[in-house]
Specification:
This protein is an alpha+beta fold. Helix content is 26%, strand content 30%. Bound molecules: manganese (II) ion.
């Protein structure tokens, strides 16, 4: 009797072990392959909210103010909009009421500021009509499309991609996103950039050649836009160089100022 009990106990134990192994194998099968290391998600703070905006892609439009198109050597009356991307992890978030250190990047001797309105999408699609485009905008931020101008120009002269001039670490600077539900959409209003207190760029959002709505429509012909995409909507004229120690102050009417120091 005693023996049988022990045998029964042993058998139960073996079954229990087998059950554990089977359960763990099936858990492994269910969870699937795991990343071998963590890559941090890129997010942008939302003004007045605890939750954050996850970034999927960064699109930028080129030469979207007539006077800037002219200074960059193109005809603002004829050219269709063109776009480029920056890598998502090029984002540098700047907190309001602070001056964030921004590293002067490698390889350049002509590092330029470009102040821009940034639109952040909560949804997307393809072939979006301009009339419906703003329905996809979650909110707006003040941004700087920082540019290694000498490298951009050098590559352009060789008919090579701009990548190295535009798509480097920390090249996508911006403040928190302000929900359009609170601010409304930005179709006009002053936009400016000062360096060490001297205003260098000063214009109005209504001088954009292609409005944010038109940019979304045009982009959606080329790419399927999705929630998490952000769009740098172009810079006004008088882009120019900065050096280490310069303090930049970017302003758009209706949004808090955004400031960085080049270090
Ligand atoms: Mn730009």
């Amino acid at each position: 009797m005693e023996t049988v009990d022990r045998r029964a106990l042993l058998a139960t134990g073996v079954l229990a072990l087998a059950g554990t192994a089977a359960a763990s194998r099936s858990a492994e099968a269910q969870s699937g392959p795991k990343p071998i290391f963590d890559v941090p998600a890129v997010t942008i703070p939302i003004a007045g909210e605890r939750d954050v905006f996850p970034v999927r892609r960064i699109y930028c439009i080129g030469r979207n103010y007539a006077a800037h198109a002219l200074e960059r050597g193109s005809d603002p009356t004829r050219e269709p909009p063109f776009f480029f991307q920056k890598p998502t992890d090029a984002i540098q978030v700047v907190a309001p009421n602070s001056v964030a250190d921004h590293p002067y990047p490698s390889l350049t001797r002509n590092y330029h500021h470009e102040v821009e309105l940034v639109a952040a999408l909560k949804s997307g699609g393809t072939n979006i009509a301009p009339e419906q485009a703003l329905d996809h905008v979650y909110g707006y931020a003040v941004g700087l499309d920082m540019t290694r101008r000498d490298l951009q120009n050098g590559m352009a002269a060789q008919k090579k991609p701009w990548e190295i001039g535009k798509s480097f670490d920390h090249a996508a600077v911006l403040g928190p996103i302000h929900p359009a539900a609170r601010t409304g959409h930005f179709t006009k209003g002053a936009i400016s950039l000062a360096v060490n207190g001297n205003v260098r760029q000063s214009s109005d959002l209504d001088k954009m050649i292609w409005s944010v709505a038109e940019q979304i429509a045009k982009l959606s012909e080329a790419f399927e836009l999705k929630a998490g995409d952000i769009i740098y909507s172009g810079t006004p004229e008088n882009v120019g160089p900065v050096v280490r120690g310069d303090v930049l102050l970017a302003r758009i009417d209706g949004l808090p100022d955004m400031s960085i120091r080049i270090v």
